[in-house]
Structures are given as structure tokens and as C-alpha cells.
Amino acid sequence: KHKEEKTNVMRTLDQKKIPYTAHTYDPDGPIDGVSVAAALGQDPAHVFKTLVTKGASGGYYVFDIPVAENLDLKKAARAVGEKSVAMLPQKELLGLTGYVHGGCSPVGMKKQFPTVFHETAVLYDTVCVSAGRIGAQVECRPGDLIALLRAKTADIIV
User: More exposed terminus of the chain, fewer Cβ within 10 Å: N or C?
Assistant: First the structure.
């Protein structure tokens, strides 16, 4: 019998006593966020993708936005008090966060970076974020995630 293996994200949520629902999808299918939302039967507005950026000062920042949206780099920079931010090159993602592209979660990165959720996150009872690997998502209350990550919310999409 196959037991779903817990990811670091799930272990972190368990440890912090944050309730969540684990969801899985075919990791060999399309992994863009809208496809993942569809595979999970979720509204794409409730499914958030995690984007990692580097600021002009050299600091790193994490932004979580609805999967169908695009990050506005100017608004994102303003939200974290930077002159500018740029997307982190994909090849640097694993080394910095411990996660691969398509499986990046705001929870359980190697180091906790300043994190900003799009302001719509708090409008929903629950949101989904990556469980830390392709094929797995966790659904939990946005307030719990924001508190755990000491994140803030802002208008950061185009």
C-alpha cells in the first residue's frame, strides 16, 4: 500500500500545528499554475505560485500571487522597500531555496526571506501553495500562512 510521503512543507505545518489539506496531481502533466489549479479542481484565484526575486540591494524576496496573474516588479519592489527587484534566474533557485522550479513553496525554504502575498489571499477561506515538490500542494488558511511566514500583503500584480 502506498503512503503519501510528507514533504518538508507538510512537516513544518504539522510542527507548527497549522491545519492543512494535502492535494496531489500528476507531476508528469503540465505544471503551470493554471493547469495545476484545474487538475485540483480549484479556482485559480485561490491557488498561489511562489516567485523568488533579488532586490537591487542584494536581498532576496518571496512573492506569492494567484497562478493566473503576473508579478508587477515595480509594485513588488515598493512592497519590500527596494529600488527594484528582478526574478531570480531559475538555475539559482534550488541552491537558494532548496526547491525546484514548479515545486517552490514559501514554507520551509533553506532560509526565511521577506515574503509578500498578493492582497487577495486574505479574501479566501483557504489558499493553495506548493507543498515543496512538483505534484503536491497544500491548502490552508491564508492567515495561518501569513502568520507563520511573518509575511505581509500588498497589491503586487500587473
Answer: N
pTM of the model: 0.95
- For 134, the grid coordinates are 512538483
Give the tens place of pLDDT for each residue, 20-78. Answer: 999 999 888 887 899 999 999 999 999 999 999 999 999 999 999 999 999 999 999 99
| 117-146: pLDDT as tens digits | 999 999 999 999 999 999 999 999 999 999
Closest CA to 7 of 31, 23, 29: 23
Quick check: 127 and 66 in contact, CB under 8 A? no
| CB-CB contact of 135 with 27 (8 Å) | yes
| Separation of alpha carbons 31 and 153, rounded Å | 25
Which set of grid coordinates corresponds to residue 96?
A: 537558494
The label of the residue with cell 524576496 reads 61
Burial of 85: CB neighbours in 10 Å, binned 0-12, 13-18, 19+ = buried
Q: By the 8 A CB rule, do 7 and 132 touch?
A: yes
40, 25 in Cβ contact below 8 A?
A: yes
H or E, element range at 143: helix 142-149
Asked whether the predicted pLDDT for residue 2 surpasses 60, the reply is no
